[in-house]
Amino acid sequence: MRRGLVVLTAVLLSGCTPENDVFRQSFTDTFYQEPSANVDTLWVVDNSISMIQEQAELAERFNEFISSMDQSGEGIDFHIGVVTTDMDQDNAGRAVMVTTATNATPYISRDTPNYLQEFQARVQVGTSGSDMEKGMEAAFYALTEPMISDANNGFLRDDALLSIIFVSDENDCSDFGSLPADSTGESCYQKELQDDLIAIKDVVDLYRDLKSDSSDLTVSSIVGPEVEASCDDTVNGSRYRALAGAFGGIEGNICDQDFTGIMEDLGVSASGIRNAFGLSYPAVAETIEVYVDETQVLADATNGWTYDASTYYITFADAAIPPRDSVIVVNYEIATAGTDTGSP
């Protein structure tokens, strides 16, 4: 596939303010919107006691996911793996992709016999897992050494898009060992222990390194909505939603009775259609200029794009997502220490 090439152009600009001279460096990032022949999708599924219905719904609607992926790019070559959110130290299966008695390969593909039924079996991961759901941590371990060369060998491909999808009715409790040893599920929601959880910005940095081109990664979630609108036995999945937002992924509601629409959207996203593109450097927001096939697209949350200064991502609104085979050019001035990045 033609990868998301980043073209960098540096120019020193000088200007004068009443207080001091300003020197800024101008850069151009160039990205290509096109389907990849290869897509690796990791489903991270909560296996705690309250998840049986949601797992069954995922299994039931998997065909919609694959159908949408196929419609978005004919001939998509997929790898699909499943891990749980259980990262207890005494759980020998942590971050190991789920297999079945009939197929020990850590992932399924088009070559997997009865791959639809195989996924349906794998995604129903049971409900005996830890009540400390560490989905972000589980995904990271599953996709890095030693797991990616051992138990999960063969899943992750250098030339494939990577899509991580979290499904949970709780919030993420990933701490990478920082919580007290005697912590329980309740510890994840104790205000005094919140700082022990890994910051979302740090997760973004870790995940960016999963691919040589961070634009080849999307993160999505099917999690609990805001607390006041939640369904029974569901917690606001704010950390998962924040991570999905940082990578321009789909944010589904686990309280929905029917996952058809969510699974269709996830299939499109996993197939390579990108609505978010990570800049090489932090940008001064008011200097950003975005072009799609040489036509300028203005900053607009409904019909254009927005910029997230914390993650350096340009995200297009649904109505403005660049079409396949288009070229996206972003010109901007690099924000340096002390620069007010502002809003476009």
Which structural category do the helix and sheet elements fall into?
Answer: alpha/beta
CATH superfamily of the largest domain: von Willebrand factor, type A domain
What is the CATH topology assignment of the largest domain? Rossmann fold
Q: How many domains is the backbone divided into?
A: 2
What is the ordering of alpha helices and beta strands? Answer: EEEHHEHHEHEHEHEEEEEE
Q: Give me the number of helical elements.
A: 7
End-to-end gap: 33 Å
Note the overall shape.
Answer: globular
User: pLDDT below 50 for ≥5 consecutive residues: which ranges?
Assistant: 1-20
Computed CA radius of gyration, to the nearest angstrom: 21 Å
Main sheet: strands, sense, barrel? 5 strands, antiparallel
Helical residues, percent: 10-25%
Architecture blueprint of SSEs:
Blueprint: E1 11-16, E2 21-33, E3 38-45, H1 52-60, H2 62-72, E4 77-84, H3 115-123, H4 135-142, E5 161-167, H5 200-208, E6 217-223, H6 238-246, E7 251-253, H7 260-270, E8 276-278, E9 289-292, E10 295-297, E11 305-308, E12 313-316, E13 326-333
Parallel strand pairs: 3-4, 3-5, 5-6, 6-7
Antiparallel strand pairs: 1-2, 2-13, 8-12, 9-10, 9-13, 11-12
How does this model look, in words?
The chain is of the alpha/beta class and 344 residues long. It is 19% helix and 23% strand. The protein is built from seven helices and 13 strands. The protein has a five-stranded antiparallel β-sheet with strand order 1-2-13-9-10, with no helix packed on it. A five-stranded parallel β-sheet has the order 4-3-5-6-7, sandwiched between helices. Helix 1 runs antiparallel to helix 3, helix 2 runs parallel beside helix 7 and helix 5 packs across helix 6. It starts with 10 loop residues before the first strand and ends in an 11-residue tail after the last strand.
